[in-house]
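S.,

As promised, the inosinic acid run. Input:
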Amino acid sequence: MARIIFATGNAGKMKEIKEILKDIPYEVVSMKEAGVSADIVEDGATFEENALIKARAIAELTGEIALADDSGLEVDYLDKAPGIYSARFLGEDTSYEVKNRYLLDKLVGVEGTDRSARFVCAIACVWPDGKSKVCRATIEGELAKEPAGENGFGYDPIFYVPQFGKTTAELSLEEKNEISHRAKALREMKKELMA
Ligand code: IMP
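Predicted complex:
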């Protein structure tokens, strides 16, 4: 069975990815499982460009099919910040408690639909012959007034989903995987890989 290498070092993401892609006619392996390591500079201007940069680098390095994702939080009131800089926002080593409090403080006095935000995910696939495909998906919501919930990671405690009346940190993993930006983009890519 041909392999697909997923360009991530994040074990949690890899679990989610393997679950969603479990019935495609390829073996999906992490970079670690494939014995590949690479220091890839993500200098694209969009989620799509960054995902493509990562997938292309791994496809070129290995000669195999490569998948990569890039994701983040866009807050409309802050001109879509932190956006592609979500992981690096206020410094890579700054805790999410601090990052989340900073964002909430920026939106003090901002009400209702002006608090709109979304998680975005782009998934790129690059084949050894250079062909590529990118899928993008979002989950729409708003910034919560206060952090809530213990599940998930990153900005989950401050991302409120009106449809559920909860933050994504209050959703179970199964509930989040039903509606998440990453799961939706992956399911879209799965159609391509099944074709
Ligand atoms: P990357 O796609 O691994 O580069 O991650 C981008 C960053 O966006 C993460 O480090 C988080 O800060 C944020 N992010 C992306 N998806 C989520 C999510 O589902 N929940 C919370 N934060 C997220």
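The beta strands are 3-6, 27-30, 65-75, 81-82, 116-126, 132-143, 159-161, 166-167. DSSP finds six helices and eight strands in the chain.

- D.
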